[in-house]
TrEMBL record:
InterPro entries: Acyl_transf_3_dom (IPR002656), Acyltransferase_3 (IPR050879). Keywords: Membrane, Transmembrane, Transmembrane helix. The lineage of its organism: Eukaryota, Fungi, Dikarya, Ascomycota, Pezizomycotina. It comes from Glonium stellatum. GO terms for molecular function: acyltransferase activity, transferring groups other than amino-acyl groups. Residues 7-354 form the Acyltransferase domain. This is Acyltransferase 3 domain-containing protein. It holds the Pfam family Acyl_transf_3. The chain crosses the membrane at residues 12-31, 51-72, 104-124, 173-195, 202-224, 244-264, 379-400.
Amino acid sequence: MAPRDANWIDGLRGVASFMVVCGHLCTAFVPWLHSPAHSAKEAPHILQLPFFRLCVGGRSAVALFFLITGYVNSIGPIGKSRAGNTDAAFTGIARSALARSGRLVLPTLIATLFSWFLANTNAYHMTKHVDSTWIRQGWHRQEPTIWAAVKSLLHAEVETWTNGWDEYDGTQWTLHLFLEGSMMVYMTMLATILVTPRARKLVFVLLYLYSWASGQGLSSGALKGMNIVVGMFVAELHNQYKDSATSVLPAPVPGLLILLGLFMSSYPQDAPEHAAWSHTMAKFMHSLVPKDADVRRYWDSLGASTVLLGIFFSRNARRVLTSPVFNFLGRVSFPVYLLHNTLIKSVLTWMVYLPSAMNPPRNEKGEQMDLQRGSTTHIFIAIAVFYYILYRMALLWVVYIDPLCAKIVNAALRWAYGESPNHNGSLEKPVLLS
């Protein structure tokens, strides 16, 4: 497979995917790190402090995915609109809107099928008995009959896209929102292709304010709407400044924007009242958002948006994100997102809890107790092996599964458009979480 062109938005996607995995590992094994301190009277661990806590937190990474979705899905139509090529813009929107569903849904169906297969070959048996609440909640039983297993699979495949819950992989709850976000981009582009760039920016501002005001719901407010709109706004800036974007702001400003965004993204998932800095942030945000809104999502979104703007205007940040390491992380970002929870519940759980499973602990009544994890060194070694397996499998996915999905989707598109296949079978666009 030909290597993908390096670009900074791809590198950022890879960082976001890696952060999601880190966040779920933190939730599984050290959930207390999600608070800024054990209590208001205790000193924080270094990984509970601002900036450092981003090493084990993945909430802002989800916001980054929505920002990237808004950016990459609107950059083409906005460019054609600015060039006055409205016919091409409308055609591109029409084709992209139809293709988008297949390019997102088909890989997700395969990932759910993989998790279903493991569950029904009893690969998750150990998961039910571990001392990690998060891993234990991901357990799924082995269905008693083949028919029951097939019905369970169909149910999970459908509900991922209807109510956002996949019983075989709970981390797929965001995927229907990504699809909705893409459609939000296409609808906004359809409505604004003929307007001036200044008018389109005003539309983005109004949409952002609407999303802020409706932020009680994940599907419309602080998680999806705000980030999708900022992504489109940055795509507008890209088409406005093009290659000169990294010289628009004075040198220190992009770096300061990135630092500010990272601080805002450090807002803790749990117990903000345990530290003065996070308690102040909570009170400040509560005064600005609708009643009962989840202030964590607002800080996640504001932080991720500010980081994106800083990177957009920073030559050095872009250079880092286009390096070979980040290019690789970007190439495999979607399969990493799809596979990591399945591998946590199987491979990582086996490695971490196997010594305890070989001699299960029992209470005074002889009843089996929760399996206990190994030593800290044991866990670190297991996590290192887990990461190797995860990224190796993700690379294999990119090499073999992605091209297969692309061929299936493109064949369906050719049929829908009444087109004949070209000499090489058609488009070979990678399947991305974009």
